[in-house]
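Severity: low
Component: inverse-folding endpoint
Summary: output formatting inconsistent between runs
Steps to reproduce: submit the following structure tokens with default settings.
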């Protein structure tokens, strides 16, 4: 009897489920518009992306890409400095491309989210008030007007796949749109700050490092609530709380 591919649950929560069946990934999204945007963003991006096999309402089928993630949050990266520099070069190519035609997230919305999440952290005593206050002070530096670029919007290191020193694919484009270049650089190096120099070397431009670190704090503060409610642990070594404390 021929072998049957197993169904692997990659991610599962009440907003999105990702399944792997052989060399195909099925992304089931509660928000149909998010799947449509992801497919369009991949078509526009000047980077290697997964092939779209088919799309139906709420479901996007993607081909697997070769290689392995550049890194995973909370784990040491085994990728070479050259691979990290290649990731920086790829991000620069994306940022040099024309921004997509849909609107990005406004600074007012980002500031409101920071306010709300900091209030939740303090009210529920998730973190000491002084840590939240100092982290918020740093994070507010990220919320400065900057020229929008074609931003990935969720460029975590485990969304960038490499084979040796070569970028083979960039995944998860559902947050793509006009945005701050520093946010992408911060997302890529989040929890792997020691690799920031390699990424900047590949990016090949002056980078506001304080702005990157400010986005590290912003992401830490706004993510903790969602993560705890969806079964993830932001207090795990090397994850959101550790990143926040390292900056404050």
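Observed output (run 2 of 3):
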């Amino acid at each position: 009897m021929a072998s049957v591919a197993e169904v692997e649950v990659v991610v599962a929560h009440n907003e999105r489920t990702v399944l792997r069946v052989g060399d195909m990934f099925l992304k089931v999204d509660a928000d149909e518009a998010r799947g449509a945007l992801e497919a369009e963003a991949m078509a526009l991006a000047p980077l290697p992306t997964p092939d779209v096999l088919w799309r139906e309402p709420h479901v996007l089928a993607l081909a697997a890409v070769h290689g392995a993630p550049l890194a995973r949050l909370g784990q040491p990266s085994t990728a070479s400095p050259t691979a990290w520099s290649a990731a920086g070069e790829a991000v620069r190519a994306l940022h040099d491309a024309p921004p997509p035609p849909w609107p990005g997230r406004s600074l007012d919305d980002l500031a409101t989210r920071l306010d709300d999440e900091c209030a939740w952290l303090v009210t529920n005593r998730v973190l000491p008030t002084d840590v939240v206050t100092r982290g918020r002070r740093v994070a507010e530096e990220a919320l400065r007007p900057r020229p929008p670029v074609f931003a990935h919007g969720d460029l975590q290191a485990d969304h960038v796949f490499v084979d040796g020193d070569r970028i083979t694919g960039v995944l998860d484009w559902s947050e793509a749109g006009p945005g701050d270049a520093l946010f992408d650089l911060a997302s890529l190096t989040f929890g792997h700050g020691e690799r920031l120099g390699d990424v900047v070397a590949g990016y090949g431009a002056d980078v506001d490092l304080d702005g990157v670190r400010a986005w590290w704090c912003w992401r830490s503060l706004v993510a903790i609530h969602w993560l705890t409610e969806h079964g993830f642990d932001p207090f795990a070594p090397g994850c959101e709380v550790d990143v926040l404390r390292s900056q404050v």
